[in-house]
Write a structure and sequence with these properties.
17 helices; globular; 2 domains
Length: 480
C-alpha cells in the first residue's frame, strides 16, 4: 500500500476515524489505561493490515521476529544469561540473511571459485525487512546495555516493531525514543491534525511532483547511456541525487506526518544533506536514523576511533561497506558503501592535516566550493548505486570525465528541481539564522485557522495534484 495511493488515503482515514472515536469514548467514560490499550490495539491491527496488503505471509515473519526479540529480552532481564541476547541478535540477522542475501552470497561464492550453480532458490523478499529487522536488533541490544527497560506488554513491543507509518522505509526508530510514547496518553488532536496533514502534503509534493518527474529523465538516460553526451550524463547524475533525496525524504516526511496525526512523534531523517561541506557532514545529515544506527551498533562496537588510526580507518571502511550491503544484495551497493567509506577516511586524514597546520578558518568561497564538490562526489557515487552493474556505472563516470559526445537532453524537471532544492535550502538557512540556530530543514506549515492559511494550503495541494506524475513509480527505498 503506497502512501501516494487512493487505497492508503481510505485506509488512513478509517484508522484516524477509529482513533478519533476513542476520544468520544474518553469524554463519556473514564476508561484510563483500557482506552489507551484499545488505541494501541487499533494501531497494531492497522499496521498488520497495512503490511499484509503486499503479502499476508510476510506478517507471520514479522510476528515471529517480534516474538523472539520480546521474549529474549524478557528472559535476559530475568535470568541474566547472555544466550538469550545472542539469540535475540542472531535470529533477526539470520532471517535477514536468508530472505535478502542467500542467493547473493551463494552466487558470489560460486563465481569466486568457478562452481556451476544448478539453479536459484526463489525466496520472497519481504518489503521493508531491513528496517524492522534493525529496529528489533536495536531493542534487544539496548535492553542488554541497560538503556531501556524490557517491555512486558507484548502489544507495545509489537507496535514498536510494526508501527505502519515508518514500517517499510523508516525512519529507523530506537526503542528509547518510541516505547516511552506508548506509556503516555497519545491520540488525535486538532493541533496534531493541522501539522501532520501539512507535513504529509509537503512530502507528497516531493514524491509525486519532483521525484517521480525526475525519474522519467533518469531512467531514459540510464537505459542507453552510451547515446548521450557527457553534459547530459552529468546532469543525470545530479538529477538522480535529487530524485532519491526527494523520494526518500518525501516518504520520511509523509511518515512523520501520519504519525503526528495519530499523536506520535518520529525523528526527522534528513537535515539539508546537500548543504554538507564534506562527506562526514553529509552522513550526519542524510538518512540520519541509519547513520546513527550504524555508528552506535556497528562502528563503536568495532572499536570506533579508540584503538589507533589504522583501526579507525578500518572500522570506518567496514561500517560503510556493510551499510552499503544493507541497502541491497548487489555488488553495486557494496561498492557504493566502500566509496563513501574511502571518502570518510580521506576526509579524516585531511581534517587532521588541516588541524596540525592550524588551518581552521573557512571563508564563504571555500565553503561554496566544498559544498559543490561534496554534492558532485555524492552524485557520482549514486551513479554506482543506481546502475545495474559496477562496469556500467564506471563506464558512465568515465564518459563524463572523457567528455563523451552524444545526444544532448536537458531535462526541464532536473533544472526546476535543482532550483527548488536550492531555494528551500536558502529559506531554511535564513529562517534558522533569524532564530540564532544552526541551519536545519523545516516544514513550511501555515495556520489553517485563517482564510489566508487555508488558501495557501489548498492552492499547494491543487498544484501538487496538477503537476504530479501519474505513472507507476514506487518509493525507491521500498526495495530495501
Amino acid at each position: 500500500m503506497l502512501f501516494n495511493s487512493l487505497s492508503f488515503l481510505i485506509f488512513f482515514t478509517l484508522v484516524a476515524v477509529l482513533m478519533a472515536l476513542t476520544n468520544l469514548a474518553a469524554v463519556k467514560h473514564t476508561l484510563g489505561e483500557r482506552l489507551t490499550r484499545t488505541r494501541q490495539l487499533i494501531l497494531l491491527l492497522a499496521s498488520y493490515v497495512f503490511y499484509g496488503w503486499w503479502n499476508w505471509a510476510c506478517c507471520l515473519l514479522m510476528l515471529l521476529l517480534t516474538l523472539v526479540c520480546h521474549f529474549c529480552s524478557l528472559c535476559w532481564a530475568k535470568t541474566g544469561r547472555r544466550v538469550f541476547v545472542v539469540l535475540g541478535v542472531v535470529f533477526p540477522l539470520l532471517i535477514l540473511g536468508i530472505f535478502k542475501y542467500f542467493n547473493f552470497f551463494v552466487d558470489s561464492f560460486c563465481l569466486l571459485f568457478g562452481i556451476a550453480r544448478a539453479g536459484t532458490l526463489r525466496i520472497l523478499l519481504p518489503v521493508g525487512i531491513s528496517f524492522y529487522t534493525f529496529q528489533s536488533l536495536s531493542y534487544t541490544i539496548d535492553v542488554y546495555r541497560g538503556r531501556v527497560e524490557p517491555e512486558r506488554d507484548f502489544v507495545k513491543t509489537a507496535l514498536y516493531v510494526a508501527f505502519f507509518p515508518q514500517l517499510v522505509a523508516g525512519p529507523i526508530v530506537k526503542a528509547g525514543d518510541f516505547l516511552p510514547q506508548l506509556h503516555e496518553e497519545r491520540n488525535i488532536s486538532l493541533g496534531n491534525l493541522e501539522q501532520g496533514v501539512q507535513i504529509f502534503a509537503f512530502g507528497l509534493f516531493k514524491k509525486i511532483v519532483l521525484a517521480d518527474n525526475l525519474s522519467v529523465f533518469v531512467d531514459a538516460v540510464h537505459q542507453t547511456p552510451a547515446a548521450y553526451g557527457a553534459g547530459t550524463l552529468l546532469l543525470m547524475a545530479y538529477a538522480y541525487a535529487l530524485q532519491i533525496y526527494f523520494d526518500f525524504s518525501g516518504y520520511s516526511d509523509m511518515a512523520v506526518g501520519c504519525a503526528r496525526v495519530l499523536g506520535y512523534a518520529l525523528p526527522r531523517n534528513f537535515n539539508l544533506p546537500y548543504l554538507s561541506r564534506n562527506v562526514s557532514e553529509f552522513w550526519k545529515r542524510w538518512h540520519i536514523s541509519l547513520s546513527t544506527w550504524l555508528q552506535e551498533y556497528l562502528y563503536i562496537p568495532l572499536g570506533g576511533n579508540r584503538r589507533g588510526k589504522a583501526r579507525t580507518y578500518r572500522n570506518l571502511l567496514l561500517t560503510m561497506t556493510i551499510g552499503g550491503l544493507w541497502h541491497g544484495a548487489a555488488w553495486t551497493y557494496v561498492a557504493w558503501g566502500a566509496l563513501h567509506g574511502i571518502a570518510l577516511c580521506a576526509h579524516k586524514l585531511y581534517a587532521a592535516w588541516r588541524e596540525k597546520r592550524g588551518f581552521t578558518r573557512r571563508g564563504p568561497v571555500w565553503t561554496a566550493i566544498s559544498v559543490f564538490l561534496t554534492f558532485t562526489y555524492v552524485s557520482l557515487c549514486l551513479v554506482v548505486f543506481r546502475a545495474d552493474s559496477i562496469g556500467k556505472a564506471f563506464s558512465i563516470i568515465a564518459a563524463i570525465f572523457t567528455l563523451q559526445r552524444g545526444v544532448t537532453f536537458i531535462s526541464f524537471w532536473a533544472v526546476v528541481s535543482l532550483v527548488l532544492c536550492a531555494a528551500a535550502t536558502a529559506a531554511a538557512v535564513v529562517r534558522s539564522r533569524r532564530r540564532g540556530a544552526k541551519p536545519e530543514g523545516y516544514y513550511p506549515t501555515v495556520s489553517l485557522n485563517t482564510v489566508g492559511g487555508l488558501t495557501v494550503f489548498f492552492a499547494f495541494v491543487g498544484l501538487t495534484l496538477a503537476l504530479g506524475y501519474t505513472g507507476a513509480s514506487p518509493f525507491i527505498y521500498f526495495q530495501f
